[in-house]
Write a structure and sequence with these properties.
- With 474 residues, this protein is an alpha/beta fold.
- It folds into two domains: 27-119 and 273-471, Zn peptidases (Aminopeptidase, 3-Layer(aba) Sandwich); 121-256, Aminopeptidase i, Domain 2 (Roll).
- It has helices spanning 5-8, 12-20, 36-52, 56-69, 194-197, 201-204, 227-240, 275-289, 320-331, 336-341, 393-405, 427-431, 456-471; strands at 73-74, 86-91, 95-100, 110-116, 121-132, 135-143, 156-163, 169-174, 184-185, 211-215, 250-256, 261-263, 269-272, 297-303, 344-348, 351-352, 374-377, 381-382, 410-412, 422-423, 436-441, 443-444, 452-455.
- Strands 1-2-3-14-4-15-21-17-19 form a nine-stranded mixed sheet, sandwiched between helices.
- Helix 11 (393-405) crosses helix 13.
- The protein binds manganese (II) ion (2 copies).
């Protein structure tokens, strides 16, 4: 049978259109059928990671456990290293660097994926517990850039550690297990909220109003004051052995009590707390755990403190990273600078997905779109790219090549309109080390909110992108 001629022969315009124009497709029109199963399985494992890790410490522990199960061993300075060896460094329980030693020398550089495992939350102040009007509260100091009005009237958990005077470290986790009590920050009722409603969103709820409700039942004793506070301390003491002074040396955080859940009738998205940046951290980790012996040494960095500037011993500005790589290099008599200058880093962090409910802040032609794959960002920053490391054309070109070769669905992403706002990642700290670095990650909706949606296809493609980086032989 003869085919319709029109479908056989392309017009010159069609031919030129195909050859010249950059046309993006929805990822679901590109996703090979055989990738559907692995994508769903990947997302189920990621949801478990989310529920297990709601603080950087929990994420670090979970990552180390997964790595140990895959044959990774803690690195000790000076140990002999051979191709295929899998080592990790847990930095103070809050950040992890993992490496798979490649067949090439370290002078050929590293293939790095760097993500962060801290997320915005409400940290307890050093002297948090008080009673007012026979109710007990914990004072908080928010961590990271959060919109305060989003953190009231939602269920919260308490997670973290308390360092007792005797040196013992007590882990606290209340609210995550079925049947656990939970916590909340209260807000005004609309009936009395008229004055508050006239304030701006930024002023409607203030930092000092983010007080966690933790009790209301007095200690059974009709004498003395602060009986509710006493009752709360008594419960904490019975369960964890802590006294009020121990709050001083504690890191306790109120985090959303939501569990990760599929979003949408088609289950195409995942709603959860902390996708920023655990969605990239898990991608970087899962891809590394599956490596055999790569040509170049592959390194996964799970950093802390990104949300407050990457400072401190566990942040990406810490020399912990340099020292770890220097140790590896020293055992092979390779200068660290030679290793860094030949390295590539994918700074894996989330970006904003275009939200049709708020079109005014986006520039549609350059925004990341839901289901269009992992988003690459040449630059971040604000007000004229301020603070951005701005990857070179050659670096973006390299990423395009290796992602296409690996069948990764990707798109370019810019965070909103020019001069609308901005943000940063760990990219500049890696680039400052003389490492070619490109930002890439999953575009999310409602970033930094207690319940962020991401799309499954982007999560899976970020994992595939990390794998392509680790396995690149270019
Ligand atoms: Mn982030
Ligand atoms: Mn963030």
């Amino acid at each position: 049978m003869e085919e319709n001629k029109e479908t056989q022969e392309k017009s010159l315009a069609e031919e030129r259109r195909e050859a010249l124009l950059y046309r993006q497709k929805n990822g679901y029109d590109l996703l090979p059928k055989e990738e559907e199963g692995p994508m769903q399985a990947y997302c189920e494992a990621y949801k478990k990671f989310l529920d297990a890790g709601k603080t950087e410490r929990e994420c670090a522990d979970y990552a180390v456990a997964l790595a140990q199960a895959r044959g990774f061993r803690p690195y000790t300075r000076g140990q002999a290293l051979n191709a295929g060896d899998k080592v990790y460094l847990a930095n103070r329980g809050k950040a992890v660097i993992l490496a798979v030693i490649g067949s090439q020398g370290l002078d050929q550089g590293l293939n790095i994926c760097a993500a962060h495992i801290d997320s915005p939350r409400l940290d307890l102040k050093p002297n948090p517990l008080y009673e007012d009007s026979e109710m007990a509260f914990l004072k908080t100091h928010y961590y990271g850039g959060l919109r305060k009005y989003q953190w009231v009237t939602i269920p919260l958990e308490l997670r973290g550690v308390v360092s007792l005077k005797n040196g013992e470290l007590v882990r606290v986790a209340i609210g995550g297990d079925p049947g656990d009590p939970q916590f909340t920050v209260d807000d005004l009722l609309p009936h009395l909220g008229g004055d508050q409603a006239k304030k701006t969103l930024a002023e409607g709820i203030t930092g000092e109003q983010l007080n966690l409700l933790v009790g209301s039942r007095p200690f059974p004793d009709d004498k003395g004051s602060d009986r509710v506070k006493l009752a709360v301390l008594d419960l904490l003491n019975r369960k964890y052995g802590i006294v009020e002074e121990d709050f001083i040396s504690a890191e306790l955080s109120a985090v959303p009590a939501f569990r990760a859940a599929d979003i949408g009738l088609d289950r195409s998205l995942i709603g959860a707390y902390g996708h920023d940046d655990r969605v990239c951290a898990y991608a970087a980790l899962a891809a590394l755990l599956e490596l055999g012996t790569p040509q170049r040494t592959a390194v996964c960095v799970l950093a802390d403190k990104e949300e407050i500037g990457s400072m401190g011993v566990t942040g990406m500005q810490s020399h912990a990273f340099d020292h770890f790589i220097a140790d590896l290099c020293e055992s092979k008599q390779v200068p660290l600078q030679a290793c860094f200058e030949n390295s590539f880093c994918l700074s894996a962090d989330v970006t904003a997905a275009y939200d049709p409910n708020f079109p005014e802040v986006y520039e549609k032609r350059n925004s990341a779109r839901v289901n269009y794959g992992v988003g690459l960002c040449k630059y971040t920053g604000s007000r004229g790219k301020g603070g951005a490391s701005d990857a070179a054309a050659e670096v973006v070109g390299y990423a395009r090549r290796i992602l296409d070769k690996a069948g990764v669905i990707w798109q370019m992403a810019e965070l909103g309109k020019v001069d609308q706002g901005g943000g940063g990642t760990v990219a500049l700290y890696m680039a400052n080390r003389n490492i070619d670095t490109l930002d890439a990650g999953v575009p999310v909706l409602s970033m930094h909110s207690p319940f962020e949606p991401v799309y499954k296809l982007g999560s899976y493609m970020t994992y595939k992108a990390c794998r392509a980086v680790y396995e690149s032989e270019e």
